[in-house]
Amino acid sequence: MVELKQKIINPLSKLSDRDTHQLAVEDLEKIINSLSNDGVSMLLNCLYDDGNDSKLAVKKESLCLLAILCATHSDPYATHLTKIIAHNVKKLMDSNSSLPAFQKFCPRVCKYMNSPKNDVK
């Protein structure tokens, strides 16, 4: 798990730099797509911590990455759904928040919640 955390933190630290931003996003998307169910909570914790960065680009990408995670790993993230939504609402209330990133996230969560195979209450 320590190796996974380091694998996640390295590209997260590159999000705030314009020169490495796109490469970091691509690396994180690859990590999300190859992530096992056991690694979902580790990734979420790293994204929550990194989402507190003061730079708008980092906040925006944290929200977008959460949306990708929700779309890719719907079952394992379901147990974390309330915390994910609370985190994103907090980011939305932030005056520097990125509304478009939140708008990408919301439909994916709603689609999951309305899916007949999921009984989220």
Automatic annotation (TrEMBL):
It comes from Fraxinus pennsylvanica. GO terms for molecular function: microtubule binding. This is TORTIFOLIA1/SINE1-2 N-terminal domain-containing protein. It comes from the Eukaryota. Transmembrane segments: none annotated. Residues 2-98 form the TORTIFOLIA1/SINE1-2 N-terminal domain. Pfam families: TOR1L1_N. The lineage of its organism: Eukaryota, Viridiplantae, Streptophyta, Embryophyta, Tracheophyta. Gene3D superfamilies: Leucine-rich Repeat Variant. One of its GO terms (biological process) is circumnutation. GO terms for cellular component: cortical microtubule, transverse to long axis.
